[in-house]
Amino acid sequence: MNLTRELAEKIVTKTMDVLGKNINIMNSQGIIIGSGDKNRLNTFHEVANQVIETQQKFIIKSGESKEFKGVREGINLPILFNKSIIGVVGITGKVAEVAGYGKIVKNMVELILQQEFLRHEIELDKKAKENFYQQLLNNEIKDQNLLADKAKLFKLNKNLNRVVYLIKFTEFNSKLVTNLTNRLNRLSFIKANDIFLIRGDNLVLIKSVNFIKNKIQEQKILELAKNINLKIAKEISDPKIGIGRTVNELSALHISYQEAKFALEIGEKLNFSAKNGIYNISEFGYDYLIPFIDDHHAQNFLNNLFRGNNKIKINELFNQYELGKIIDALIKNDLNISQTAKELYVHRNTLLYQLNKIRDETGYDLKNLSNLFTLLIGYHIFLFNK
Hints:
Blueprint: H1 5-19, E1 23-26, E2 32-35, H2 46-54, E3 58-60, E4 74-81, E5 84-92, H3 95-98, H4 102-137, H5 144-153, E6 162-168, H6 174-184, E7 195-199, E8 202-208, H7 215-235, E9 240-247, H8 253-269, E10 278-280, H9 295-305, H10 314-319, H11 323-332, H12 337-344, H13 348-362, H14 369-385
Parallel strand pairs: 9-10
Antiparallel strand pairs: 1-2, 1-5, 3-4, 4-5, 6-8, 6-9, 7-8
Helix pairs in contact: 1-4, 9-14, 11-12, 11-14, 12-13
């Protein structure tokens, strides 16, 4: 382990808070890289070299400091890490006052180094695990043996059921989201097998689920999304959350992630009235296919809807006539005219008049299931691509 300037300053701050004496930290070249006296930073400490060479403490008494370059009265001791000297710690002051602190400070510094080493190792392991999950979401690991080896290395259950949540923010602030993620990790419903990842301007949660795939599972997945939504809304702003399908292999995580992306994109573009901005791919039905229709085929489909009727403009039809609201209400109410009228807050006769007008102008009778479904698909493709 190397003594960095950042680490040296951290050690100085912690030890001076306890000791109340000036502390200097010298690296293996004898340069002061941490000190309570900022004027001594980056200067050469001659005695530090001798401490490193002899591996023994060195006491500088009053009047002796002039014999050495960059040295003041005090005590200097070697800093050991894994039985190797990596630097020197010096305590400035009258020998009679500071000599008794020598061993205490030395032990404190070495303990801080051990803690920093462990923290660094944990951080490296965390980053390596995050990188592994990022590769899984990108579907970059094709070799199943390599995937199994990495899962074993990180002590992951390869066949555990998992679901991906994609969280989109109104405005992405990296610092705020990082702090929020640390707090979310401490919540009771986030377990050891779960992980948050910052991905672009979004936050991803890969959540393990231990229950059998059924309606109860879907309810629990949705309940978790609501809890996360409330927590984020309270601390930052209202988010949008897309939920992918539950998969039972690490190699299939990219599918759940892509579906969470689709859920967000489809839900927002089609103006789905999801509660609290939560969109679950399992609730989309035929709309699941819309992102897979390329622009060319989507435009051809819309153009062919009213072939032979040049007077109709698609934008006007779907926007001015509020055709989309009528279609969605009819579907929701199983073509029941009275219930649909209530849904739209219009009189039944008014709705019938609108339906007849749409039939006369477009050639599509919305009381006919086939006609209704054709326009429904057209309307959703229109919303998704506009």
